[in-house]
Amino acid sequence: LVFAVSCRREPLATRYRRTERLFETDNPGALESARAGLKQAEAERSERWSWKFRLLLSSIELNRNEVRGALRTLNVSASPPDAHERAEQAYLVGWAHVLLGEFSEAEAPLRFALQTAGPLGDEVLLEKINLNYSALLIFRNEYAEAETRLRKVIEGARRRGDRILEGQAMLSLGFNDLLD
Q1: Cα 91 → chain centroid
Q2: Is the full-model pTM beyond 0.85?
Q3: Which residues contact 53 (CB under 8 A, 6 or more apart)?
């Protein structure tokens, strides 16, 4: 009986929530959990969960500065099934290129992410994209537009009580002000 219980696969939704919590608490086990979740989702031929784990895994890789690994994770022939995931994939690809200093490569995916996410009405996703897009603008010396975007991110994050996103935007705004 013990063997049968230990061999049972964890449901994908449960594994995903657990992996998200590990990532949110900076637990090093998040990376392996996301990889295992992606492998399980692909074995079960679940396109929806494969993409959810792929996006989460690439976010974890970017957070750990494994930028090339994140690009490999995101570089697949099929595109995500829904607009939200397409926007998220594009913004993560764009952000990876910003981190690598490949600014010309970052422009198109970040613009696509903004265009795709706009009609969805997901404020958090739009703010994350604008935060990353503003970094690209700062590197291109487009300080006024970067400041406008960052102030909108700060307002939205403050309104929702998202202290982490607000802090990231304020840090970027301070960096922008130093360079301007």
Answers
A1: 7
A2: yes
A3: 12, 16, 19, 34, 37, 38, 41
